[in-house]
Write a structure and sequence with these properties.
Blueprint lengths: L1 H24 L20 E5 L6 E6 L6 E5 L5 E3 L2 E5 L4 E10 L5 E10 L18 H4 L3 E3 L8 E5 L2 E5 L5 E11 L4 E10 L4 E10 L13 E6 L9 E4 H4 L13 E3 L4 E13 L5 E10 L1
InterPro entries: Ig-like_fold, PKD_dom_sf
Protein name: PKD domain-containing protein
Keywords: Signal
Length: 294
């Protein structure tokens, strides 16, 4: 009797487990994901308010409910920011500000608003000419610094941008233009840089030096910022402002900084030098180049 009872209990347990597994297997694959705890969307709404006492400066404030992280884009590439951001828009024009809110479980929401800037800031005007590369006249503002004897590395212009192409093997090329600066005045340099694929043993460096660029000679006067696979950036695809995605240290400050100041009033040369050994097949593209007073 004891043996039969144990067998009967075993059969009942086996039947119960089979029934549970059967019910579980009938559940949809995403039953755990769709448990009601993860929101389908996140409210990405935000406000834009002019900052009193500052020219062409605006405060962005995202509504905080359900938002864990804020991604902002003012037209030059997305960047991770705070729910309250202060932005400067020195040039006259219409800007589309986009906010992407990220909530629990990776749920996202996106909202956009336009800001119309009526007048350019006279103190922060862009000193770069042709920084958009939009027309032949813009492109003509730049001089090519020939550093690749065979022409293996070269710049091309399209889609309001300039792209450096290189087959690798340390081939490189530069572009530059002269800019007049004032002694002891602080300036900031920035630009949008992008490449859909990464590189190895590659650099994209920005200089603001007093030395005149010489054909065939690597420019090394006052490196300000850039990308460098040795320093940990441009190894994979990237897109954004160089001040955000760059990792090269400023020669003067010893930190990653896009601020420059000069000991004399006069002419300097804003120069970009780019190349590498295992260079991305897609090239590195630059646009929206800025050189502004602070």
């Amino acid at each position: 009797m004891k043996i039969n009872l144990m067998k009967k209990q075993g059969f009942l347990a086996l039947f119960f487990m089979t029934a549970v597994l059967s019910v579980t297997s009938c559940q949809p694959d995403d039953s755990i994901d769709n448990n009601g705890l993860t929101p389908a969307t996140v409210d990405a709404s935000f406000t834009i308010t002019p900052v009193e006492g500052k020219v062409n400066t605006y405060k962005l404030v995202a509504q905080p409910k359900g938002v864990l992280k804020s991604i902002w884009d003012k037209g030059a590439g997305a960047y991770a920011g705070k729910m309250e951001e202060e932005i400067s828009l020195p040039d006259a024009g219409t800007y589309t500000i986009t906010h992407t809110a990220i909530g629990a479980g990776g749920a996202t929401g996106t909202a956009s608003k336009d800001v119309v800037v009526a007048t350019s800031d006279p103190l922060k005007g862009n000193l770069v000419q042709g920084g958009s590369f939009a027309t032949a006249a813009d492109q003509a503002k730049w001089t090519v610094l020939n550093l690749s004897p065979t022409g293996a590395a070269f710049w091309s212009y399209a889609n309001n941008s300039a792209t450096l192409h290189s087959p690798g093997g340390w081939a490189q090329e530069g572009i530059y233009q002269a800019i007049d600066v004032v002694k002891d005045k602080e300036y900031t340099i920035d630009m949008k840089v992008s490449s859909p694929s990464g590189s190895d043993e590659t650099w994209f460096e920005v200089y603001a030096g007093k030395s005149f660029p010489a054909s065939g000679v690597e420019y090394k006067d006052n490196k300000v910022m850039g990308l460098s696979t040795w320093d940990g950036c441009a190894k994979t695809g990237f897109s954004g402002m160089l001040s955000v995605v760059g990792c090269v240290k400023n020669d003067k400050t010893g930190t990653v900084s896009n601020t420059v100041k000069f000991t004399e009033t006069g002419k300097i040369y804003l120069l970009i030098r780019c190349g590498g050994n295992k260079f991305t097949k897609d090239g590195i593209t630059v646009s929206k180049i800025e050189f502004r007073g602070k």
